[in-house]
Structure formats: C-alpha cells, structure tokens
Design a protein that fits this description.
- The protein has 557 residues and is mainly alpha-helical.
- It has 15 helices and eight strands.
- The strands form three sheets. It has a four-stranded mixed beta sheet, sandwiched between helices. Strands 1-2 form a two-stranded antiparallel sheet.
- Strand 3 and strand 4 form a beta hairpin.
- Helix 2 packs antiparallel against helix 11.
- The chain is elongated.
- One of its GO terms (molecular function) is molecular adaptor activity.
C-alpha cells in the first residue's frame, strides 16, 4: 500500500519511479528501470506515456533544479519517489478544461450508483430469507465502495499537495534562473561600460591611419622572407614579392571597426535592462508569486479527510454487522429491518463521502486552473523575458569579443611598420651575434678545460707528496679537488633565423626614410663585452704583476 499524509491511497507494485505531471495534475508511475539510464531516455519514456514531446518537457526536482538531458537520472539523488516525485511541466500547453473533472466524476458516480441501485431494489423487495443474504452482499459491497471512495479522496488530497510542491519547485527554478541571468547581466553591464572606452580607443587608433596604410604600401617584403614563412606553414604557395599592405589585406575581416562599433549600439543595453526590470518586478510581486490561501486549503482538506476516516470506522462496523447477520432466534423480518436500517446509515455516510469527494475534486480543479492560468500567463512571460535577455547578452558578448579582437587587429596594423622594421633589424643583429658568440664560447671552453687540467694535475702531485708526510696534520683541508667548471657546450640557438640580409635593410631604409632611425645594426662586440679584467689591475694599473711560476714557488724532496 502507499500512503500520503498518513492516509492509505492505492495498492501499487513497488518499486516504481514517479513523475507528477503538473499541467494535468496527475501522478505517473513508471518502471523503476528508467532511473538507471540518462535523463534523455527518461524523457522519451515520458513522451510515450503523456504525449508531451521531449522538446516541450521541463523536468524539475522538488528544490527547483532542472534536469539536464545529458546527465544520468541517478545524479539527482532522492528524486522520483512517491513522496518526492519529479515534476513535469509542458512548456507549450493547450488544456482541456473539462477532461479531468469529467473523468473523476464518472469514476465517483460509477462507484456509488451501483450500490444505490442495489439498495433501492432491496428496500422495495418482500421480506424473505434470501433477502437477508442479498443484504449481506450489499454490506460487503458498501464496505468496498466506502474504501474506494476514501482512496479516491486521499488521492485528491495528495494531488493538492503535489500541485503545491510543483508550483514551489517552479518558483524556485525561476528564482535560480533569474539569479543566473542577473550575474550574466552584471558582466554585460560591465562590458558595456568598457565598450565605451574601447570606442574612444578605436577613434584614437583610427587617427592618422591613412598615413599608416600609405607606409605599409611602401614596405616591400623580401621574397626570401615570404618563401621561408610559407615553408614553415607547410604551404606550397609560390612566394612573390609584395608589399606589407597587400600581405595584411589578404586576411582582411569582413566587418570594419566602424561597422562593429555600430552593431554594438545602445539597443541591446536598453532591452536587457528593460527585461531584467520586468522580471524583477514580476517575481517580487507576492500576489503573483504566491497562491493565496493554499496552506489553509490544504489544512482544511486534511482535516476533512481525517474526519471521514473516523466516520469510515463506524461505516465498517455497520457493514460488518449487516454482512454477518444470521437467522437464529430472531425472526426474518426483524433481521431484514435491522439490515435496512444499518444500510440506510451506510448509504448516508457514503453519500457524505461522495459529496466530500466532489468537493475535493472541485477544489483540485480550482487549484489546477489557478496554476494553469499562471503558467500560460505571467510565468510564460517571465521565462520569455529571461530567455530574451539571455539571448541578447550572448549576442552582445559575441559582438563585444569581435570588436575587441578587431580593435586588437587595428592596433597591430598600426604598429606593423615599426614592428616590421624592428624585427628586420633584430633578425640581422642576431645573425651577426650568433657566430661571434659561438666563436667566443669555443675559445672560453678550450681555455677552461686547459685551466682545469693544469690545476688538477698540480693538486694531484701535491696530494701524493703531502698525503704520505707527517706534516699533513698541520695542513688540513689541503686535499680538495679543483672544480671542473669547464662547460661541455652551449644549447643551439638562432639556427633558423629568417633569411634577412644587409641589402634588405638598405632597401627598406631607402624606401621608407621615416623608419631610418630603426634600421641600424651595431656590432655585437661579444669578445669585448665578455672579457674579464683582473680587479687588482684597476687600482694599480702602472704596476706590472709579478710572474711567479708554481714550480719555482714550491719545492719538496
């Protein structure tokens, strides 16, 4: 059996996976195996059962979190139980206002009309012993009808509770969605302010831009430089000498800076601000957000149901007494009259239960219509506004990034003449420095090796002599080895420099005189810059340092 608020409802085969379809106000029991797959597979099963297309489904947990189709159902722990089902909303819903009411009224009518008809026949029948047996059967039928009516009422109470829970889940989701868009809008507003600064920078960059373009047209890129660039890119394109302007123009984007600036106008800003203000006002309105009197309604329903549960105990006793009647010392007439009296009370109690069921049903329809009106009204409008604001922010960010990138390209284009001249000069400088440094390093390495070899040899001879002499105790620490600091080599560098020659520099200097101050290459002077002077020579440059050979300064026999 399953229960809601302590009330017995329907016997169902467990375990099941439960989804409450809010638009229809009905609880759907699915095979528990759907919880083992992805949310998308669950949505496909829901589509088969409810005819709600996957694209129109919005699945929420009780806290308002929306299910993501790519995730596993098991990711949403605790959801899908009878007391905590998933809540299904159809985004585009066209309801049939009478469908649910008629279906439930028919169910209640069918349950009770059979009993009433039977009692009418029995009450009109002549008293006889067979009539006693028929009243016994009617008593058992009355008990069955009463239990069924009570179950239907319990289900209606449960539907009220789940409708309220589903509504709260939707409101929670709406708050979360608004919070997410608000965070995006904060970044949007920040970028919008930065956009103003970017436009000012763009105006500054575009000043004197025509002169830059003319300079680019005067700069010719050496064919050897182009060939080397194409080769490194893996291109088989034949290199033909071209100007720097032509080289840049080949990758010219579709939109100019001015066009991009116009596309990011104040329109998006005003629309986003307007939509977010509307959403904030609507969500903050308690008259729209809250269902007035829902808590009182639920409390009253529960109290009424509890009262009928107590009356059902009396009804069960009456039905049991009727169904257990037997002929003994009493006359047949007395038994039948007693049965009729008891069944009359049973009928009155069932009529009251039927009346309560209709009231519960009407209450559910009112609540459901209230929620449906909100769903197709302000809820739909608020989500549409949030969706519109989100799309506007995304579109703005795309334009913002494109403008920022375009601005960077313009900056690079404006810097291109100076950068080209600087790179050409640097390339030639390094081509001179590299062989001179390698020459110096080779000389340094050879001298270092010679020094290490000589010093190591001298120390080894001394070590052998002092090591076997009793005076070694007076000279501790004299047996250290000389460090082998001589390098083995230097890492290769500047092996793949672009093929730039001094002639290229002279050609550019003649073509663009305004860049002449950047087109100067000085000798690296590696030997001079890396030469080491004895610090003692600085203080007494006039003195000639004494030359004392080691073999003349130390004799041991």
């Amino acid at each position: 059996m399953r229960f809601i608020s302590g009330h017995e409802v329907f016997p169902l085969i467990d375990p099941m996976f439960y989804v409450f379809y809010v638009n229809e106000g009905s609880l759907k029991a699915l095979e528990v195996s759907v919880a083992l797959g992805s949310v998308h597979k669950l949505q496909c099963v829901i589509e088969e059962i409810t005819r709600v297309p996957v694209a129109e489904q919005a699945l929420l947990v009780s806290g308002g979190e929306g299910l993501q189709s790519e995730k596993q159902v098991s990711y949403y722990q605790g959801a899908g139980t009878e007391s905590n089902p998933l809540f299904l909303f159809r985004k585009l819903y066209k309801e049939d206002g009478q469908g649910i009411e008629l279906a439930n009224n028919d169910e209640l009518y069918t349950l009770c009309s059979g009993l009433y008809d039977e009692l009418h026949v029995l009450d009109s029948s002549t008293i006889s012993r067979p009539l006693i047996t028929r009243y016994c059967d009617a008593g058992r039928l009355g008990l069955k009808v009463a239990e069924r009516c009570l179950q239907l009422c319990a289900r209606l109470v449960q539907d009220h509770q789940l409708l309220h829970q589903g509504w709260l889940a939707l409101i929670s989701n709406l708050y979360d969605s608004r919070t997410q868009i608000e965070k995006k809008s904060e970044r949007f507003l920040s970028r919008y302010e930065r956009l103003k600064t970017m436009k000012i920078k763009a105006e500054t960059l575009l000043q004197d831009f025509d002169n830059v373009l003319r300079t680019l047209q005067q700069i010719k890129i050496p064919s050897a430089l182009l060939s080397n660039s194409y080769k490194l890119q893996g291109s088989s394109k034949i290199a033909e000498e071209c100007t720097l302007y032509e080289y840049i123009a080949r990758a010219d984007p579709q939109n100019s800076l001015e066009e991009m600036s116009e596309q990011t106008s104040d329109t998006e800003y005003k629309q986003v601000v307007s939509n977010m203000r509307y959403v904030s006002e609507e969500v903050s309105n308690p008259e729209i957000r809250n269902i007035r009197g829902i808590n009182t309604r639920l409390t009253q329903l529960d109290a009424m149901f509890h009262s009928k549960e107590q009356e059902t105990k009396v009804l069960k006793d009456l039905c049991f007494a009727v169904s257990q009647s037997a002929v003994d010392s009493q006359s047949t007439k007395d038994i039948v009259l007693s049965q009729r009296e008891k069944m009359f009370k049973v009928k009155k109690l069932i009529e009251q239960m039927q009346k309560m069921g209709k009231a519960f049903q009407q209450s559910k329809i009112e609540l459901l219509n209230n929620i449906r009106t909100r769903l197709r009204g302000w809820i739909l409008q608020v989500y549409d506004r949030l969706h519109a604001a989100n799309n506007q922010i995304i579109l703005f960010e795309e334009k913002y990034i494109a403008l920022r990138n375009r601005l960077d390209i313009i900056r690079q284009v404006k810097e291109s003449p100076i950068m080209f001249a600087t790179a050409l000069t640097e390339c030639l400088r390094r081509s001179v420095l590299q062989p001179e440094f390698e020459s110096w390093f080779t000389s340094f390495m050879e001298k270092s090796v010679a020094l290490v070899t000589e010093e190591t040899s001298v120390r080894e001879v001394f070590k052998q002599k002092l090591g076997r002499h009793f005076l070694k105790q007076l000279f501790p620490g004299m047996l250290d080895n000389f460090p082998n600091f001589a390098p083995n080599g230097v890492a290769h560098f500047d092996q793949n420099l672009p093929p730039v020659t001094p002639a290229d520099l002279r050609t550019l200097r003649q073509a663009v005189p305004c860049l002449a101050n950047l087109l100067k290459v000085t000798d690296p002077f590696i030997y001079q810059r890396l030469s080491v002077r004895d610090p003692r020579m600085a203080s007494s440059s006039q003195m000639t340092p004494p030359i004392l050979k080691r073999e003349e300064s130390f004799y041991t026999t």
